[in-house]
Amino acid sequence: MEEKYIGMEISRTNNLLLRSCLKNDFKDVNSATGKNAWIIGYIAEHGDKDVFQRDIEQDFSIRRSTVSNMISLMEQKGYIKRESVGYDARLKKLVLTPKALDIHRRVKGNLIFSEHKMRRNISDEELKIFFDVLEKIRENIET
Questions:
Q1: 41, 101 in Cβ contact below 8 A?
Q2: Which of 117, 113, 109, 115 is nearest to 29 (CA)?
Q3: Are 33 and 22 in contact, with CB atoms under 8 Å apart?
Q4: 47: left (phi over 0), alpha (psi -120 to 50) or beta
Q5: Fewer CB within 10 Å of terminal CB in the chain, N or C?
Q6: Fold assignment, 6-142
Q7: pTM for the full predicted model
C-alpha cells in the first residue's frame, strides 16, 4: 500500500476546494477570492463585536506581517477600513465597507453550498473525528 502524507492530502484537498469555489460564483466577485473572502466573512459573522487584526492572526493561524499586508490590500480595494475604538487609542477595529458586505452576501451562498457538498456521505461521528484529528494536527504543528 502506498504511504500517504498528511500535508500532501491537505494540499490536494485545498486545491480541489479552491477550484470548486472558483468554478461557482466566486469569480463573480473579482479579486475578493481566497483569504479575502474568508476574512470578509469572518468580520461579517462577528458583527456583534469589534474585530481586530490580531483576531484574524489567531483564528486563521496567519502571521502578523501576512495579515498586515492582506489588510492593507483589502483597504486599497475598498473592502475594509480601520477605525479607532474609544476604549484603547492604540487599537483599530476592522470594519467592512458596503462593497465588502455585498461580496459577503453573494459569496455566502456558495460557501454554504460547498460545505454541504463536502459533508455529503459523511456521518456526524466521522465529522467529529475529522475535526478532532485536524485540531490535533494543528496542535502538533504549533508545538
A1: no
A2: 109
A3: yes
A4: alpha
A5: N
A6: Arc Repressor Mutant, subunit A (1.10.10)
A7: 0.66
Whose cell is 479579486? That residue is: 31
Q: What is the pLDDT of residues 97-123, one digit of tens each?
A: 999 998 888 888 877 888 898 999 999
Q: The cell 483576531 sits on which residue?
A: 55
In one letter, which amino acid is 65? S
How many whole angstroms separate alpha carbon 84 and alpha carbon 33?
Answer: 27
Report strand pairing: 80-85 vs 88-96: antiparallel
Percent of the chain with pLDDT over 90: 48
Reading the block at residue 141, the C-alpha cell is 504543528
Q: Which long-range contacts (CB under 8 A, 24 or more apart) does 95-100 make?
A: 95/43, 96/40, 96/43, 96/44, 100/32, 100/40, 100/43, 100/44, 100/74
